[in-house]
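Input structure tokens:
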């Protein structure tokens, strides 16, 4: 248990029957880069039950925030979805992950492509002033099955647009592109298909993929994490990591259990 810090739940919000977010206290010694994840969980029968969760809060914020799916028979999420204010969670003392800007070679447009709770690390990154300093445009794409599942992302972006500091930055640089696959909505379809057909770029009034200027981060469903890297590689994009920055990076560790 010494590898984990005990933190207190400060708030819980259930967005749909399958999605919720929560905030918790943050130990002053816990450091992370925006876009990283940590192991978090609960003590069950005297033992830690942990899963990887991306921080949805930025590294300059005093509280931790997480965005989670509910899996009724999931070992952790079946329990975690029942937490309330004042409960205790465990947070690993070390953060890690590939979705950090240092793993990308410099570019002009940053594409943050997510599905479901894969939005979480990008919730952290769009609250990072350095991202706005380093890129001319940031495109945050979030794909879900139903319109209701976009609620967390819409609340996040709406709040930042009204923020004293981030509001002016976002108006100039951030493009939010929500899309759904199973209901009528202004943007329809899978992110993979919308990029392949250039529809997403047409919708936001921007040019298509350009290896010279575009840098990409991916976090989401297994299908997206298989299809999009193959598409990018076919166009000459190179995957980056901690030892060698590239045109795009992938995170596969967000929780689905």
């Amino acid at each position: 248990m010494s590898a984990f810090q005990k933190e207190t739940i400060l708030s819980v919000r259930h967005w749909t029957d399958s999605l919720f977010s929560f905030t918790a206290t943050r130990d002053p010694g816990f450091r992370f880069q925006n876009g990283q994840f940590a192991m978090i969980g609960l003590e069950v029968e005297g033992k830690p039950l942990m899963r990887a969760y991306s921080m949805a809060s930025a590294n300059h914020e005093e509280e931790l925030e997480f965005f989670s799916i509910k899996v009724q028979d999931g070992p952790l999420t079946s329990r975690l979805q029942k937490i309330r204010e004042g409960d205790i969670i465990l947070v690993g003392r070390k953060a890690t992950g590939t979705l950090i800007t240092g793993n990308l070679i410099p570019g002009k447009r940053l594409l943050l492509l997510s599905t479901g709770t894969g939005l979480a690390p990008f919730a952290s990154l769009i609250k990072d002033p350095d991202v706005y300093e380093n890129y001319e445009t940031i495109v945050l794409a979030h794909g879900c099955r139903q319109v209701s599942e976009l609620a967390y992302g819409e609340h996040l972006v709406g709040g930042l647009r009204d923020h004293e500091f981030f509001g002016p930055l976002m108006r100039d640089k951030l493009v939010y592109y929500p899309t759904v696959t199973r209901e009528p909505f202004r943007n329809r379809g899978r992110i993979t298909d919308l990029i392949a057909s250039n529809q997403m770029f047409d919708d936001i009034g921007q040019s298509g993929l350009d290896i010279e200027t575009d840098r990409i981060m991916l976090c989401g469903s297994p299908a997206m994490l298989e299809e999009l890297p193959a598409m990018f590689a076919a166009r000459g994009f190179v995957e980056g990591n901690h030892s060698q920055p590239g045109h795009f990076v992938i995170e596969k560790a967000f929780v689905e259990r």
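The first helix runs from residue 77 to 80. DSSP finds eight helices and eleven strands in the chain.
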